[in-house]
Write a structure and sequence with these properties.
heterotrimer; A mainly alpha (about 290); B alpha/beta (about 325); C alpha/beta (about 325); A: about 290 residues; mainly alpha; MetI-like fold; 12 helices; elongated; C: about 325 residues; alpha/beta; Rossmann fold; 2 domains; 12 strands; about 30% helix; globular
Chain lengths: ~290, ~325, ~325
C-alpha cells in the first residue's frame, strides 16, 4: 500500500547554483574591508601622527589643489594636523565604537524582545514599559546625562550608545516574535518536546533574523553618526583622539574657506554607512534559505 | 471507560474577547464548551464542523498546546492536566500532531532531516548516527527518498511537506496522532496520496487518530466514528455509517446535504439551514443551532437539549428526538 | 437561425516571462459558452484555469501576457480592444466574482457605495443608484438589505461578502459572469447557499457563467458543461452528466476516482502518480503521459488534439475508448 503512496512525488532536484555575489555585496564588503583594514593598520599607514600640530602648515588644501602639499594628500586642518592620518585613526574609533555598541544594543534588545514577545503577560508588560521610558527620553539628553555622571571615556560612550539604542531591536523583535510564535511550525516544535529556551533559540530566533539584520545595519550606520554627534557635542571620546565626529565639528567653522576639513570625514561616514547598508541587504537575503534558489 | 487511549470530559476553552475594565463584564468566546469523548486504541475518531466550531482548538487542547479552561483529559489513564511540566514534557512522546498548512508547519530555516531528527535529539533517543538512521527509516516510511533529508522545506511540494510533517510526528513512535486538517490545503490527487499514507501507517503502526477536518467526505472516509461539532459543542457522535446514513441531529443533516458530491446521479436529502452562523460572542440561548434550524420548535429557544442515545454508540443532542 | 455562442475562445495562449524561463500557463485553450449556459473549468492548482479567466478579462498581471488566440464576446474580439474599451466591457458585459472578497471589495467604502458607484457608471442619478444598490442586495438575499447597505466589508461574514460581490458583479446586468473559485473560502453550508443563489440567478436572468473551480462536486451541482484542464490544455470537455458517468480521459478518470465517495469509504483511494509537469519546458507529446496508467508509445511523441468523440463530448487522448 505504501508503494501506491510512494508516488513518484518527485520534484527534480533543483540545480544548486551558488548565486553570484551581487554588486551590492561586493561593493559593501570591499569598502568595509578596506575601512577595517585601514583602521586596524592605521599606525602603519598613516603618514603622520594624527595629533601632531604643525601650525606652519595649517589649512593646506588637498595635494591636487594649487596650494596643496604632496606630503599631506588630503590637506591639513586648522591646527596643521594631517587630515588623512586623522581619518585613518578616526576610523578606529568610529568603527570600533559603533560595532561594539551595536553588538551591545543587539544583545540587550534581542534578548528582551524575544522574552517580551514570547512570554507575553507580565514579562511583556514590564519590558514594554521600560521601552516606553527609554523612548520617551531623547537619547542625546540621556547620553549627556550619563556621560556627565560617569565621565566621557571610550567605554562609557559604548555603554551609553548601546544602552539607549537597544529599544529599536526590542520593539522590532517583539513584533516579529508575536507573529512567529503562532505559526504552526512553532506549535509543532512545542508538541515535539521543545521547551522555551530551545524553542526561542532554535526556532523563533532564526526566523526573526531578517528584521534583526536590517535593524543592525541601520543601527550601525546610526551609531557612527551618533558617536559623531556625541563627539560633536563634546561628550564622546575626548581629544586628542581623533574621531570623524570631532573632525566634522572642527571643520564646521571652515566650510566656506577650507572645505576639506569637514568633507573628507563626512565622505568617510557616508561611504561606511552606505557599505554597511548594502552589506546588510545582501546578508539578509543570503541567510534566507528560501531565497537561495 | 476501561482501556481507552484518550478520554476527554467536559473540555472547555474560553477566550476573552476584549480585556475587561474594572467591574465591567468581560465578553467571552466559548471556543470549546464542554466536549466529551473517548478514543479506543487503534480507532480513528473524526471531528468535523465548519469554521469556528472549535475542532482545531479541541485538538490543541488535548495536547495541552493551549491550556484548557476546564475539563479533564486522560491519556493512557494518566490525567494530563494535573501533570507537572517535566512529566507533561515526557508525556508528549505519546501524542503528536500533524498540521494543515504545509507551508507554515515546517521551520523554513531548518533542513528536513533536522526537523525530523529533532525530537529524537531532545528526548535523547539515539546518538547522531542512530538519529540519522532513524530519519532515513522515517522518510522511507512516508514514501520519500532518504536524500530528502538534506532539503529545505521550500524546495518541496505541498504533498511532500505534509509527508515530512507526518514523519516528524512519528519520530517518537506516539500512540495518538491529532491530524488537524492534514489534507485540506492539498490538491485532490495529492490528497488521495496522503490519505492513503495515513491509512497505511495506521494499519502498520497501530496508530490512533483524532482526525479533524471541515471536509465531511474526507472525515467519513477516514474515520471509524465521527463527532459533529457546532459552536463549541459536539451535537452528534456515532459510528461512521450511522452518521452517514442515519444522521439524527438537524445540523448533521444540514452538513450532509450541503456537501457537493461529484456525482450528479447521487440523490440526497436537501436540508437547508436558515441564515448565517451565529457569532460566538453572542451565543444563542437554548440550543445553539436553533436560529438556523429548519425544524426549530419553541422549546429549542429556551432549553439546552441533552445528549440522547439514538443507536448503538450513537448520541445526538436535539429536542426532536424526544 | 443558429444563435452564435456568447463567448468563443480559440487557441488562447498566455505566457509568463520570468528570470528562469517562459512559463506557458495556458497553451492552446479553446472553448465556447452558449447563452444561458454554465461552463465549469476544472483543474488542480497550477493548471491554468485562473489564468484563463484573467486572460479573458485581460487582467493578466505582468510579466504575463496573452501571446495568441481569439476571444470573441458576442462576436467582438476582446483581444483587439484598447484599454478603455475593455474597461467598459468589464462590469457591463462581463461580471467577475473572485475567491477572496476581502481583497476584491474596497475596505474603505461601504458595500452600498461600491454597488451604487457601479450603477452610476451606467447612467442615472445618485438616488436611483442607491436604490439600485439596495435592490441588488435584496436580489442576492442579503437579509435586512436596507439596513446593511451601509455596512463595510469587514463587518460582513464571508458568505455575506460573497453575496455583496455578486451584487456588485451583476448590477450592470452582464451577459457573462466569470466566477473564480467563489465558494472555496466559505464554509460548506454557506457554500451551498451561494451555489443555490447562483443557480437561481443564472436561471432567472439567462446569464452565462464560466465557473472556475477545483471542486468536482461544485461542477456537478452547478454546471451544464465542464472542461477539464491540465497543464495549460483542455483534456476533456462535454456535458456534466456524460463526463461524470463516462469520463474518457485518464486524468478525468483519475480525478473522479481519487475522491472519497460513499460507495468506498474506508478503502484505499486511487491516486494519480507523479506531479504536474514543469510548464517552463514545452513538453513533447501528451503532458499527462508521465503519469498516465494507460500510456502508449505514441503518447510521448505526439501531443493529442482535442477531438469530438460523441456529440458535444471531446477528449484529447488517443487511447480512451
Amino acid at each position: 500500500m505504501t508503494d501506491a503512496a510512494v508516488a513518484t512525488d518527485a520534484l527534480p532536484a533543483p540545480a544548486r547554483v551558488r548565486p553570484r555575489p551581487s554588486f551590492r555585496a561586493v561593493f559593501g564588503i570591499t569598502v568595509l574591508l578596506l575601512m577595517s583594514a585601514s583602521a586596524l593598520l592605521a599606525p602603519r599607514l598613516a603618514p603622520w601622527d594624527p595629533s601632531r600640530q604643525m601650525l606652519l602648515k595649517r589649512l593646506r588644501p588637498p595635494a591636487w589643489e594649487a596650494r596643496g602639499l604632496r606630503e599631506h594628500p588630503l590637506g591639513t586642518d586648522h591646527l596643521g594636523r594631517d587630515i588623512l592620518s586623522r581619518i585613518l585613526y578616526g576610523g578606529r574609533v568610529s568603527l570600533g565604537v559603533s560595532l561594539s555598541s551595536v553588538a551591545l544594543a543587539a544583545t540587550l534588545g534581542v534578548g528582551l524582545g524575544l522574552s517580551a514577545g514570547f512570554f507575553g503577560g507580565r514579562t511583556d508588560a514590564i519590558i514594554m514599559r521600560v521601552v516606553d521610558v527609554f523612548l520617551a527620553v531623547p537619547y542625546i539628553l540621556l547620553a549627556m546625562g550619563v556621560v556627565f555622571a560617569l565621565g566621557p571615556s571610550l567605554l562609557n560612550v559604548i555603554l551609553v550608545m548601546g544602552a539607549t539604542r537597544w529599544v529599536q531591536f526590542a520593539r522590532i523583535v517583539r513584533a516579529d516574535v508575536l507573529s512567529i510564535r503562532e505559526r504552526e511550525f512553532v506549535v509543532g516544535a512545542r508538541a515535539r518536546g521543545n521547551r522555551a529556551p530551545r524553542l526561542l533559540l532554535r526556532h523563533v530566533l532564526p526566523n526573526a533574523l531578517t528584521p534583526i539584520i536590517v535593524v543592525a545595519t541601520l543601527e550601525l550606520a546610526f551609531m557612527i553618526i551618533y558617536e559623531s554627534a556625541l563627539s560633536f557635542l563634546g561628550l564622546g571620546v575626548q581629544p586628542p583622539t581623533p574621531t570623524w565626529g570631532w573632525m566634522l565639528a572642527d571643520g564646521r567653522n571652515y566650510i566656506a574657506t577650507a572645505w576639506w576639513l569637514a568633507t573628507f570625514p563626512g565622505l568617510a561616514i557616508m561611504l561606511t554607512v552606505l557599505a554597511v547598508n548594502l552589506l546588510g541587504d545582501w546578508l539578509r537575503d543570503a541567510l534566507d534559505p528560501r531565497l537561495r534558489l | 471507560m476501561a482501556g481507552a487511549l484518550l478520554e476527554v470530559q467536559g473540555l472547555a476553552k474560553w477566550f476573552e474577547a476584549a480585556p475587561g475594565w474594572l467591574g465591567r463584564r468581560r465578553r467571552v468566546i466559548r471556543a470549546v464548551d464542554g466536549v466529551s469523548f473517548a478514543l479506543q486504541p487503534g480507532e480513528t475518531l473524526g471531528l468535523v464542523g465548519e469554521s469556528g466550531c472549535g475542532k482545531s482548538t479541541t485538538g490543541r487542547l488535548i495536547l495541552r498546546l493551549i491550556e484548557p479552561s476546564a475539563g479533564q483529559i486522560r491519556l493512557e489513564g494518566r490525567d494530563l492536566l494535573g501533570l507537572p511540566s517535566r512529566e507533561l514534557w515526557a508525556a508528549r512522546r505519546r501524542m503528536q500532531i500533524v498540521f494543515q498548512d504545509p507551508f507554515g508547519s515546517l521551520n523554513p530555516r531548518m533542513r528536513v532531516g533536522r526537523i525530523i531528527a529533532e525530537p529524537l535529539a531532545i528526548y535523547g533517543e539515539a546518538d547522531a548516527a542512530g538519529r540519522s538512521r532513524r530519519v532515513g527509516e522515517l522518510l522511507e516510511l512516508v514514501g520519500l527518498d532518504a536524500a530528502y533529508a538534506e532539503r529545505y522545506p521550500h524546495e518541496l511540494s505541498g504533498g511532500q511537506r505534509q509527508r515530512i510533517g507526518i514523519a516528524a510526528a512519528l519520530a517518537l513512535a506516539p500512540a495518538l496522532i491529532v491530524a488537524d486538517e492534514p489534507v485540506s490545503a492539498l490538491d485532490v490527487s495529492v490528497q488521495a496520496q496522503v490519505l492513503n499514507l495515513l491509512m497505511d501507517l495506521r494499519a502498520r503502526l497501530g496508530l490512533t487518530y483524532l482526525f479533524i477536518s471541515h471536509d465531511l467526505h474526507v472525515v467519513l472516509h477516514m474515520s471509524d466514528r465521527v463527532a459533529v461539532m457546532y459552536l463549541g459543542e459536539i451535537v452528534e457522535i456515532g459510528p461512521r455509517d450511522a452518521i452517514h446514513r442515519e444522521p439524527r441531529h438537524p445540523y448533521t443533516r444540514v452538513l450532509l446535504s450541503a456537501v457537493p458530491v461529484a456525482d450528479p446521479g447521487l440523490r440526497r436529502e436537501r436540508v437547508v439551514p436558515i441564515g448565517e452562523v451565529a457569532s460566538p460572542l453572542a451565543m444563542p440561548a437554548g440550543c445553539r443551532f436553533h436560529p438556523r434550524c429548519p425544524f426549530v420548535m419553541a422549546r429549542c429557544r429556551e432549553e439546552v437539549p441533552a445528549s440522547r442515545e439514538v443507536g448503538a454508540g450513537h448520541l445526538a443532542a436535539c429536542h426532536l428526538l424526544d | 437561425m443558429i444563435v452564435p455562442p456568447l463567448l468563443e475562445v480559440s487557441g488562447l495562449r498566455t505566457e509568463f516571462e520570468t528570470a528562469r524561463g517562459t512559463i506557458l500557463a495556458v497553451d492552446g485553450v479553446s472553448f465556447t459558452i452558449e447563452r444561458g449556459e454554465v461552463l465549469g473549468l476544472v483543474g488542480e492548482s497550477g493548471c491554468g484555469k485562473s489564468v484563463t479567466s484573467l486572460s479573458i478579462l485581460r487582467l493578466v498581471p505582468p510579466p504575463g501576457r496573452v501571446a495568441a488566440g481569439r476571444i470573441l464576446l458576442e462576436g467582438e474580439d476582446l483581444l483587439a480592444k484598447d484599454a478603455e474599451a475593455m474597461r467598459r466591457v468589464r462590469g457591463a458585459r462581463i461580471g467577475m466574482v473572485f475567491q477572496e472578497p476581502m481583497t476584491s471589495l474596497n475596505p474603505v467604502f461601504s458595500i452600498g457605495d461600491q454597488i451604487a458607484a457601479a450603477a452610476l457608471a451606467h447612467g442615472g442619478g445618485r438616488t436611483a443608484a442607491w436604490r439600485r444598490a439596495v435592490e441588488m442586495l435584496q436580489l442576492v438575499q442579503v437579509p435586512s438589505a436596507r439596513e446593511r447597505v451601509g455596512d463595510y466589508p469587514h463587518q460582513l461574514s464571508g458568505g455575506l461578502r460573497q453575496r455583496a460581490m455578486l451584487a456588485l458583479a451583476l448590477v450592470s446586468g452582464p451577459r457573462l459572469l466569470i466566477a473564480d473559485e467563489p465558494t472555496t473560502a466559505l464554509d460548506v453550508t454557506i457554500q451551498a447557499q451561494i451555489l443555490d443563489l447562483l443557480r437561481r440567478l443564472q436561471a432567472e436572468r439567462g446569464m452565462s457563467v464560466l465557473m472556475i473551480t477545483h471542486d468536482l462536486g461544485v461542477v456537478a451541482e452547478l454546471c451544464h458543461r465542464v472542461a477539464v484542464i491540465y497543464a495549460g490544455r483542455i483534456v476533456e470537455m462535454g456535458p456534466v452528466a456524460r463526463i461524470f458517468e463516462r469520463p474518457l480521459h485518464p486524468y478525468t478518470r483519475g480525478l473522479l476516482r481519487c475522491l472519497p465517495h460513499p460507495s468506498r469509504f474506508g478503502r484505499p483511494l486511487f491516486s494519480i502518480e507523479g506531479v504536474p509537469p514543469d510548464l517552463r519546458r514545452t513538453p513533447v507529446g501528451c503532458r499527462f503521459a508521465p503519469r498516465c496508467p494507460d500510456v502508449i508509445e505514441s503518447c510521448r511523441r505526439v501531443e493529442p488534439a482535442l477531438t469530438e468523440r460523441e456529440p458535444g463530448h471531446s477528449v484529447a487522448c488517443p487511447v480512451s475508448t
